[in-house]
Fold this protein.
Amino acid sequence: MGSIDIERHGRGVVRLVLNHAESRNAMGEALRGELLPAFEALLQDPACRVIIVTSALKDFSVGGDLSKMDTLADPKAGRRRMTSAHRLARVLLAADKPMIAEIRGYAMGAGAGLALFCDTIVMGEGATIGFPFPKVGLAPDFVIAHTLPRRIGLSRARQALLYARNFKAPEALAIGLADDVVPDAEVEAKAMARAMELAAFPSFAAALTKRMLELSHDAQAVLDFEATAQALCFASDDFREGVSAFREKRAPDFDKPVA
């Protein structure tokens, strides 16, 4: 049977480890059914400041579970499947905590989509991220047509999705699909270092920043939101601590919850 392991580390860093060996972490109903409550719980947990999404297997995720799709010829069944997948997608789109994808091996299709919900993607040198949907007669799903263009631009996303492109780690880094590429043996350490860096910053400001970036296509919406966001920040303990630390020429301590 598959499982998801939750590992808690210092400063509120949590590793969410996919471990569905029988399906190579295929993003089917079983894995999605575990991911939804796991993410919901972590995103509501004040002790969790940063989430690393990774795999206990040699691959991050091989994508959709084709072995379970032979029943989807009925449009109603297909619709039900997508509605189920969209519940998880909506939770991840609204996530207000920084998330990091730690990728070794293959991250394909919906597996790539899971990584694309993350703010930072760390890949091993031997890793590959790809979008094989046309090869099996499918259009992209898991909101990839939204998340991929926001990472690499509409033109590159168009080529990746229409031509079913795979990107090895160095090319992914070159086009902005990955943020860090390190030797495979160093992926976990690099992702953890990134997470600890994020955890040192105030989580309240990070949540507001993530929301603002989702509005980034609309300048007026950003102006409206930042007026409220910055006013809340000005009134926060984090702002007072940051200013005090600056004046006292010391590192700020944002570990305490915001009042």
About this structure: DSSP finds ten helices and nine strands in the chain.
